[in-house]
Amino acid sequence: MPARVHTVAVIGAGKIGELVLSGLLRSGWPADRLLATARRSARAEELASRYGVRVVDNLVAVDEADVLAVAVKPQDAGALLEEIGPKVPADKLVISLCAGLPTAFFNRRLPEGTPVVRVMTNTPALVDEAMTAISAGAHATGEHLALAEEMFKPLGATVRVPESQQDAVTALSGSGPAYFYLLVEAMIDAGILLGLPRQVAHELIVQTAIGSAVMLRDSGEHPVKLREAVTSPAGTTISAVRELEKHGVRAALLAALEAARDRARELASQAD
Ligand SMILES: NC(=O)c1ccc[n+]([C@@H]2O[C@H](COP(=O)([O-])OP(=O)(O)OC[C@H]3O[C@@H](n4cnc5c(N)ncnc54)[C@H](OP(=O)(O)O)[C@@H]3O)[C@@H](O)[C@H]2O)c1
C-alpha cells in the first residue's frame, strides 16, 4: 500500500515539524492527508494559512491520523504523552523526531505493542537535502520502517541505523549543519581579514562549500584524497593545514561531537 494513503499528523509543528510538513507537501503528499498540531493558537493559524492543512487538537490528530510524527522538544515529550499516550490505538505508527529520546521512552507511555520508529533528520530538509537516519523500536516492523522511509526520502537521503547509534547520529548529522555554518562564518571573517569585501568572501566560500560537498558525494573519493589534491608541496594549502592542526581543529571536532552525543543522552535522562 503506498504511504500516501495514510494520514500523517505532525504533533508539535515547530521548526522541524514544519520542515516535515512542507517537505511532504512538496513531495506531493495530499494536503487533506496531513494534519498538524500546535500549542499556541497564533502558531496554529500561521501553519493553516501557510500550508492549507488542518491544524487540530492533539487528541483529534490521534483519532484521525494513521501516523503520528512527534516533533516536540524532548523536554515536552513527557507531558505530551501523558495527554495522548493512553488514547493512541496500538495500531497507529508513532514516529519520533525528538533528539535523544529512545523508543522505549515512548513505549512506556503508549499502549502495549505500539510501533515506534525513531528518526533523526536535519534542517537541509528545507531544500530536499536532508540526512535522515531511521531506527525501529521494539514493535516496529520492516513495513513501518519502509513507511517512514517513504515519508522522508523526498526530503533528501535516508539511512537505516540500529537505535543504539542514534545519539551519535544526532551529534553528527542532526546538529551537523550548525558546524558547517560556523565554519563558513569563520571563513568569511578570514576573507574580510585578508581584505575582501564581505559579499565577495561570502560568495567565494559558499560556492567552495557547495563544490566540495558535491565532489565528496559524487566522486566517491575519501576526503583525504580530495584534500591531498589541493595540497601541493611547500604550497599555500599546507601552510593553512599546519595552522589548523596547531590549533587543534581535529581534536576540537572530536570533543565537540562527543559533547553533542552526551547532551543527547542528558536530554533523554532529564525527560524520563
Ligand atoms: N532544530 C533542529 O535542527 C533539529 C534537528 C533534528 C531534530 N530535532 C528535534 O526536533 C524536535 C523539535 O525541535 P524544534 O527545533 O523544531 O523545536 P520547536 O521549534 O520548539 O518545535 C516544537 C513545537 O512543539 C510545540 N509543542 C510543545 N508541546 C506541545 C504539545 N503538548 N502539543 C502541541 N504542540 C506542542 C511547541 O510549541 P511552542 O511554540 O508553544 O513552544 C513548538 O512549536 C526536538 O525534539 C529536536 O530534538 C531538531
From TrEMBL:
GO terms for molecular function: pyrroline-5-carboxylate reductase activity. Residues 163-267 form the Pyrroline-5-carboxylate reductase dimerisation domain. It is found in: Cytoplasm. PROSITE patterns: P5CR (PS00521). Keywords: Amino-acid biosynthesis, Cytoplasm, NADP, Oxidoreductase, Proline biosynthesis. Residues 7-100 form the Pyrroline-5-carboxylate reductase catalytic N-terminal domain. It catalyses: L-proline + NAD(+) = (S)-1-pyrroline-5-carboxylate + NADH + 2 H(+); L-proline + NADP(+) = (S)-1-pyrroline-5-carboxylate + NADPH + 2 H(+). One of its GO terms (cellular component) is cytoplasm. Its main location: cytoplasm. GO terms for biological process: L-proline biosynthetic process. Its EC number is 1.5.1.2. Pathway: Amino-acid biosynthesis; L-proline biosynthesis; L-proline from L-glutamate 5-semialdehyde: step 1/1. The keyword Cell inner membrane does not apply. NADP(+) binds at A71, V72, K73, P74. NADPH binds at N58. Belongs to the pyrroline-5-carboxylate reductase family. Catalyzes the reduction of 1-pyrroline-5-carboxylate (PCA) to L-proline. This is Pyrroline-5-carboxylate reductase. It comes from Micromonospora avicenniae.
